[in-house]
Amino acid sequence: MFVCTGNSARSQMAEAFARHMGAGQVEASSCGIHPKGLHPLTRQVMAEKGIDVSRQTSKALTDEMLRKADVVITVCGHADEHCPALPAHVPKLHWPVDDPAVLRGRAPEEVLAAFRQARDELESRVRKFLSMLSKEKMAS
């Protein structure tokens, strides 16, 4: 479960990468503390990687989601600070990634570059996380 404040960009990207790279081996989802809807640039930058996120929706974090999660990964400080208490069996990781959606009023190229930077950072983090999971599975 990937969690951020708005569930419009970072957590959506992480979910999509986990689904794509996990190739049916993992079940990924995302949600937000205060969901705002999928940002159009999230669709664009993920399409550049060949991943279609158009069917993903922005969802609010619920206690039920937390109970079903195997691990919760927050991708912003606000979500990390405001994430409700997790069940004892659910570990939480924090991946601080700058929010590209806050760059309103800047040059379009600058905003797009910020979305690409967040996307690339999340792709790398998800790849490393899935590799770690795979190694843990092989060891057990």
3D structure, described in words:
With about 140 residues, the chain is α/β, with parallel strands linked by helices. It has one domain: 3-Layer(aba) Sandwich (Rossmann fold), CATH 3.40.50. About 45% of the residues lie in helices and about 10% in strands. The chain is built from 5 helices and 4 strands. Helix 1 (about 10-20) packs across helix 5 (about 110-140) and helix 2 (about 40-45) packs across helix 5 (about 110-140). The two termini are about 25 Å apart.
Please list the strands of the largest sheet in the order they lie side by side: 2-1-3-4
Number of helices: 5
What's the CATH architecture? Answer: 3-Layer(aba) Sandwich
> What letter string, H or E per element, gives the SSE order?
EHEHHEHEH
Poorly predicted residue ranges = none
> Mean of residue pLDDT?
93
**Radius of gyration, rounded?**
15 Å
Question: How many distinct folded domains?
Answer: 1
Structural features:
140 residues; Rossmann fold; four-stranded parallel sheet; 5 helices; single chain; globular; alpha/beta
In short:
The chain has a single domain (2-139), classed as 3-Layer(aba) Sandwich (Rossmann fold). 46% of the residues lie in helices and 9% in strands. It has helices at 10-22, 40-47, 63-68, 77-82, 108-139, and strands at residues 2-4, 30-32, 72-74, 92-94.
